[in-house]
Write a sequence for this structure.
C-alpha cells in the first residue's frame, strides 16, 4: 500500500497545503489574524504527519506552528529548530524562527508573530484557547489520511494476529505487552496505550494494564497505535480452550452492538442518536446498565478518540474515522472503522483473525470474533 511513508514524499506538502487552507478559511469565518499550534496532535494534523515532540510524556511539542492570513512560521529553540524544519516539514514553505534557550519561550514568540486577534490550541497570554474547535477541522480526512488509516489498521491487525496465535498458559501479561510493543516498534508505530489483561482481571477492571500475572485462559489485548499522528485503537480477545458461556454471552453481545453501530453509520446521523441506539441495544441484549461503565466511543484520527462527542449535536461525516469501544463486564470490542463514499469499512480487520457474522437492519456485517486457541 503506497501511503507516503516519509515526510519528503511530494504528496505530503500538497496535503499539508489543504490543511492550511482549511485553517485560514476558519480564521476568516471567526475573525482571527493568526493561529498558534503547539500540541503534538495539532502539529501532526497541520503538517500532514510531522512530529514536534522531544518529551514522550507531554502533549506539547518543541516546535510551534504559526499560521496567519498570508504566512506560516515554525518557531522553536535552536536545539530543535533545524531538525524539525528539515525533517518534519520539508517543502511546506514554513519560515523558520529560531531562538536561543535564554531568549524566552518559543510559544510566546509564536504568539507575537500571530497578530492581534489570535487563537491557540493551548493557553497563551492574549490568545483564545480553542483546541476542541480546531480539532473539528481535522474532518473530513483527506485521501492521503484515509490511505494511512488503512495502512495503520492493517499493521495493528497483523501484529495482534501474530501475537495472539502464539499465546499460551503461563506467559505473563508484562511479557506479552513487551512482545506487542516490540512488534509495533519494528513498524515505526508508537503506542499511546497498551493494555494486556487476563482472566478475572478482565471482569474486574475496564483498563487492566499489564502486570507480572501469568495468563491462564482468557486474554484481552488493546493497543492504541499511532503513526503520522493518526490512531488505530483496537481491542481483541483470546481464549485458550473452550470459552465459558459467561464469556461468550458478553462477547457476542458486545460484538452485536459494535456491528449495529457500524452498519448504521451514515453522514448526517448525530452522535447523540447513536448513543441512544446503544442504550436500547444494551438493554435488548440483557446488559441494560453496561453503557454507563465506559466511554462508548466516537471519531478518531489525530485525537485518540473524541469520546464525549455523543453528548453534542454534531453529526457523522463522510471521510471520518471512528473508534467505538463497546464494553460489557468480561468483554470488550473495538476496531478502527472508516466511513467513505463507498460506505463503512473495518480498516483494522484484514488479516486471518476469525470473524463472526452479525445480522443488522442494514444487512450482515462481519466483525472480529473471540479467538479460540
Amino acid at each position: 500500500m503506497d501511503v507516503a511513508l516519509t515526510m519528503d514524499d511530494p504528496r505530503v506538502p500538497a496535503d499539508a497545503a489543504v490543511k492550511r487552507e482549511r485553517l485560514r478559511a476558519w480564521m476568516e469565518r471567526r475573525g482571527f489574524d493568526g493561529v498558534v499550534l503547539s500540541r503534538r496532535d495539532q502539529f501532526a494534523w497541520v503538517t500532514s504527519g510531522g512530529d514536534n515532540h522531544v518529551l514522550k510524556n507531554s502533549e506539547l511539542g518543541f516546535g510551534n506552528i504559526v499560521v496567519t492570513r498570508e504566512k506560516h512560521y515554525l518557531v522553536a529553540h535552536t536545539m530543535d529548530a533545524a531538525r524539525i524544519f528539515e525533517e518534519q516539514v520539508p517543502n511546506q514553505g514554513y519560515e523558520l524562527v529560531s531562538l536561543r534557550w535564554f531568549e524566552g519561550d518559543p510559544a510566546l514568540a509564536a504568539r507575537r508573530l500571530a497578530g492581534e486577534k489570535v487563537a491557540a490550541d493551548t493557553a497563551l497570554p492574549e490568545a483564545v484557547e480553542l483546541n476542541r474547535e480546531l480539532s473539528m477541522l481535522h474532518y473530513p480526512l483527506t485521501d492521503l489520511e484515509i490511505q494511512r488509516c488503512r495502512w495503520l489498521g492493517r499493521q495493528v491487525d497483523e501484529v495482534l494476529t501474530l501475537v495472539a496465535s502464539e499465546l499460551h498458559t503461563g506467559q505473563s501479561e508484562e511479557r506479552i505487552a513487551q512482545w506487542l510493543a516490540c512488534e509495533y516498534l519494528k513498524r515505526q508505530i508508537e503506542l499511546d496505550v497498551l493494555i494486556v489483561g487476563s482472566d478475572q482481571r478482565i471482569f474486574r477492571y475496564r483498563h487492566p494494564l499489564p502486570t507480572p500475572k501469568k495468563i491462564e485462559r482468557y486474554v484481552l489485548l488493546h493497543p492504541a497505535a499511532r503513526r503520522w499522528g493518526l490512531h488505530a485503537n483496537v481491542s481483541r480477545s483470546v481464549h485458550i480452550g473452550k470459552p465459558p458461556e459467561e464469556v461468550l454471552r458478553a462477547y457476542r453481545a458486545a460484538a452485536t452492538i459494535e456491528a449495529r453501530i457500524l452498519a448504521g453509520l451514515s453522514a448526517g446521523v448525530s452522535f447523540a442518536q447513536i448513543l441512544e441506539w446503544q442504550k436500547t441495544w444494551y438493554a435488548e441484549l440483557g446488559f441494560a446498565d453496561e453503557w454507563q461503565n465506559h466511554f462508548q466511543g466516537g471519531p478518531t484520527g489525530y485525537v485518540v478518540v473524541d469520546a464525549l462527542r455523543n453528548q453534542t449535536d454534531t453529526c457523522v461525516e463522510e471521510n471520518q474515522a471512528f473508534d467505538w469501544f463497546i464494553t460489557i463486564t468480561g468483554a470488550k470490542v473495538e476496531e478502527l472503522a472508516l466511513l467513505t463514499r463507498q460506505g463503512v469499512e473495518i480498516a483494522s480487520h484484514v488479516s486471518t483473525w476469525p470473524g463472526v457474522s452479525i445480522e443488522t437492519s442494514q444487512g450482515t456485517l462481519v466483525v472480529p470474533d473471540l479467538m479460540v486457541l
